[in-house]
Amino acid sequence: MTPKHTVLIAEDHALLRAGMRALLASEPDIEVVCEVDTGEDAVRMACALKPSVVLMDLNMPGRGGLHALAEIKRREPQIKLLVITMHKTDEYIQEALRSGASGYLLKESSHEELRIAIRTVLAGKVYLSPDVSARMVSNMIGAGSRPAATSTALDTLTTREREVLKLVAEGLGNKQVAHQLSLSVKTVEKHRSSLMRKLGLRNVAMLASYAFSNGIVTV
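Below the sequence we write its predicted C-alpha cells.
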C-alpha cells in the first residue's frame, strides 16, 4: 500500500478546520493527522509528527503563524508549509515566503484550489493564489521600473543563472533543470547557491517570488 501524505491543520477557527478536514477526507492518499489552534502547538506537533505538509493560518493566539512557519522550517526543513490566510498585503506575502512557506493561498479560494495548492507543494513546487501572483506582477508594472538596488542585484546574474532561476521558479527540481540545460546536478546546485547569495534569498519560494516580481516568470 502506498503511504499517505500526512497533513497538520493549524487554524484557530473550528469551522474552518472542520471544512478543510472534511474536504481532505475525500482524498484517498491524504490523511489529516492533527489539528491545532495556536502557533506554539503547530510547532510542537509538527516536530513530533513530522507531517508531509502543514496548512498554516497566520493569525492565531500566542506568537502566531509567521513565527511558527519560521520555527518549523528551522527545525524540520523537509516539511512543506502552505499558508492559508485572508491577508493579501505585500508585507504578509513577503514575510511568509521569507519564513519558509512553499505556498500562499487565500481563504476566499475554492475547495478545488486548496486541493491543487496542496498537491503542488507536495510535489516540491511553489503555489501562489492567482490573486497573489497578479498582485506581484501588478506591483512590478505599477512601479514602472525596478528600484536601483533590485536592478543592481538582477544585473549581477549571469545568463545561465537567469535560466536556472526561471526554471526553478517554474517548479522544476535540480535534476529536471540539469536535464533541460544539459548540466550536471552539482552545477545546478552551485548556480542555485549563487542565486540565493546574490539576491539575498533563502529558499525556492523566495526565488519564485523574485522571478514573478521581476518579470522573469509571468502568470
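Residues 185-199 form the longest helix (15 residues).
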